[in-house]
Design brief:
The protein is α+β, with helices and mostly antiparallel strands. The chain has one domain: Beta-galactosidase, Chain A, domain 5 (Distorted Sandwich). It is 15% helix and 35% strand. A 9-stranded antiparallel beta sheet has the order 11-12-13-14-28-24-23-18-21. A 6-stranded antiparallel beta sheet has the order 17-26-25-22-19-20, with no helix packed on it. Helix 1 runs antiparallel to helix 2. It is globular, with a radius of gyration of 22 Å. The termini are far apart. The N terminus is likely disordered. GO terms for molecular function: carbohydrate binding; isomerase activity. This is Aldose 1-epimerase/Galactose mutarotase. InterPro entries: Aldose_1/G6P_1-epimerase, Gal_mutarotase_sf_dom, GH-type_carb-bd.
């Protein structure tokens, strides 16, 4: 019933422990058994909510975009679609493995950390501005002779590959899950990937909830016989009303700020600032290449999010990218990238993985809340004119 990182039985000393563990177990049980177990638990300990069990912990058996796995997954309905749920009552993740392994929602202590539009177009989730799209095998834009979406391999052959790669467009399988703490989603090479990226690989995204945040690991395994190039990344859409941009800031260690030219090459870098307000136009579509231990701190009214990017055993993070769609968008993107865009040609952050080897890029996001500031923001929102 339980896979390698699923919760194992332990000594259950209280009714609360029993209820909590059984709720998790129900989520892994076959559908018919699960319903009987839930009814039995309700009869023995009436405080267990059947609604909560059925809504959150029972596996989904519908027809919508089935996940490529034989596991029974805890799901929650979100905007009319079943998403995989992990976490606790007030701190949890909602994920769509079948849609590019997308992290759709991250709630930390009752607060949404990421943006997701109320009217998302689920007919093409890869194009939705929100959550955290996974960027693999290459983050950013790549060019050959000024033509976007192309890259040239070491033999001189030109291949077509979309902006940010293909991972966000393809279904992942759930290869391991702990409904209380973590999930591992896996993408393997196929005919669809080899058309523009002729390498054998396994790409894994591992999300693990922390008491004060989230750890995300992007792992690339070379299952082929030739050296594999890659530079994956994240595209976090952080929730931030556009009216609060002037009150929000991004703090960085020593960096160089640069942009990408129309032919894909990086512009001449200039020294970065230690702190930027998020309404600073210099941040738009800017690359911040680290020249000291990689980190970043996003401060918005009510909370701070610290990116801890210098993790033991992790591939080096070369830069963070800052971007937002418009000045009136209610999100702001701070994106850790292993390499600069077009690194396949200029080499800045390009990683090569030998056959049979693997490499992980690990980032931790620590969240701290300023309750007084958050209360003021809520008060201002309540009295703001409509």
């Amino acid at each position: 019933m339980f896979n390698e990182i699923a919760p194992a039985p332990r000594l259950l000393s209280t009714l609360s422990d029993l209820k909590e563990w059984c709720l998790i177990a129900v989520g892994y049980a076959p559908q018919g058994i699960a319903s009987h177990v839930a009814r039995f638990l309700k009869a023995c300990a009436g405080s267990i909510s059947m609604g909560a069990v059925c809504r959150r912990h029972l596996p989904y058996h519908g027809a919508f975009a089935p996940i490529t796995t034989t596991m029974h997954l805890p799901t929650e309905d979100f905007q009319g679609h079943p998403l995989v749920w992990i976490g606790h009552a007030d701190s949890y993740l909602l994920l769509a493995p079948q849609h590019g392994g997308r992290l759709v929602r991250w709630v930390h202590r009752g607060q949404d950390i990421l943006y997701w539009p109320d009217a998302a177009d689920w007919s093409c989730p890869a194009k939705v501005r929100g959550g955290n799209p996974l960027l693999f095998p290459f983050a950013g834009r790549h060019f050959v002779k000024g033509n976007p979406g192309q890259w040239r391999d070491s033999q001189g052959k030109v291949h077509s590959l979309a902006l940010h790669g293909f991972a966000r467009d393809l279904p992942f399988e759930v290869s391991a899950i702990n409904g209380r703490a973590s999930i591992r989603m896996t993408l393997r090479d196929s005919g669809a990937t080899r058309a523009g990226y002729p390498f054998a690989f396994v790409f894994e995204a591992i999300y693990a909830l922390l008491p004060d945040g989230l750890e995300v690991t992007l792992r690339t395994i070379n299952t082929g016989t030739q050296c594999l190039p890659c530079y994956p990344g994240h595209h976090f859409y952080f929730a931030l009303p556009h009216s609060q941009r002037a009150a929000a800031s991004l703090a960085l260690p020593r960096t160089e700020r640069l942009r990408q030219r129309s032919d894909g090459s990086p512009m001449c870098a200039e020294p970065g600032e230690p702190t930027y307000r998020l309404d600073d136009p210099r941040l738009q579509d800017a690359l911040h290449a680290f020249r000291a231990n990689p980190s970043a701190t996003l401060a918005i009214p009510g909370r701070k999010i610290r990116f801890e990017l210098n993790q033991p055993g992790s591939a080096p993070w070369h830069a963070v990218t800052t971007w937002s769609e418009t000045e009136t968008a209610d999100f702001y993107c701070v994106e850790p990238w292993v390499g600069l865009p077009d690194a396949i040609h200029h080499g800045l952050g390009l990683r090569w993985i030998e056959p049979g080897q693997k490499e992980s890029a690990v980032c931790r996001l620590r969240v701290t809340s300023d309750l007084l500031a958050l209360a003021k923001v809520r008060s201002d929102d309540e009295v703001a004119p409509t």
